[in-house]
């Protein structure tokens, strides 16, 4: 597939990930994971932290219960992650430079936008410096679909809500499983560099139709 034109856009609808893609939040979720493991007397598991970023809250909690043989209820783990995440997101999260300008430029060009995030509405709503519900026409959270981003469910649901065919959508992601599953669904993909040192940049460059280092200058 040819590399997409970002502005003027060559796509009819835009679907955006949040964590890492639009906001540098990996360090916040690492803190949440570190607290989660520490309170249970478990050593921090780097691979598990990366897996949880793909699965989302409920599926991730079930995965943790099974992997570590925890006695916690899945709902209690989800509530814990929500509480910890919301406390950090409230004051610390801001969009990456240029991200809001690009989103607004797309909307001015008549492109409907959806947020497709494994995050929870409670955490998104806690942010004081980012109004995702004002920036996007639709917000789809991981809890609203059956499977994580290693499957295309969340992107297909976003395209459905936007009233756009999958082939007309462009997905902006910073994780490899999401980029691959969106591509399998027939969507154009843009991989976005982030600060997470675990990001497999080389693999993402190969998998995506386009790679960008950030958002600055895209709306010019």
Automatic annotation (TrEMBL):
GO terms for molecular function: phosphatase activity. InterPro entries: HAD-like_sf (IPR036412), HAD-SF_hydro_IA (IPR006439), HAD_sf (IPR023214), PGP-like_dom2 (IPR023198). CDD domains: HAD_BPGM-like (cd07505). PANTHER family: 2-DEOXYGLUCOSE-6-PHOSPHATE PHOSPHATASE 2, PSEUDOURIDINE-5'-PHOSPHATASE. This is HAD family phosphatase.
């Amino acid at each position: 597939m040819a590399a997409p034109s970002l502005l003027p856009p060559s796509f009819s609808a835009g679907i955006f990930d949040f964590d890492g893609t639009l906001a540098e939040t990996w360090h916040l979720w690492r803190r949440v994971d570190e607290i989660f493991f520490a309170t249970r007397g478990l050593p921090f598991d780097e691979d598990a932290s990366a897996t949880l970023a793909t699965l989302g809250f409920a599926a991730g909690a079930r995965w943790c219960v099974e992997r570590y043989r925890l006695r916690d209820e899945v709902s209690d783990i989800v509530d814990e992650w929500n509480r910890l995440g919301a406390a950090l997101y409230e004051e610390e999260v801001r969009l990456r430079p240029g991200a809001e300008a690009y989103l607004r430029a797309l909307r001015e060009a008549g492109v409907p936008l959806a947020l497709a995030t494994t995050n929870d509405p409670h955490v998104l709503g806690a942010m004081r410096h980012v109004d995702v519900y004002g920036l996007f026409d639709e917000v789809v959270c991981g809890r609203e679909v059956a499977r994580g981003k290693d499957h295309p469910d969340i992107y297909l649901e976003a395209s459905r809500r936007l009233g756009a065919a999958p082939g007309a959508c462009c997905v902006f992601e910073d994780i490899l499983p999401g980029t691959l599953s969106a591509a399998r669904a027939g969507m154009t993909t843009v991989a976005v560099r982030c600060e997470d040192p675990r990001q497999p940049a080389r693999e993402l460059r190969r998998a995506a139709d386009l790679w960008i280092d950030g958002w600055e200058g895209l709306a010019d």
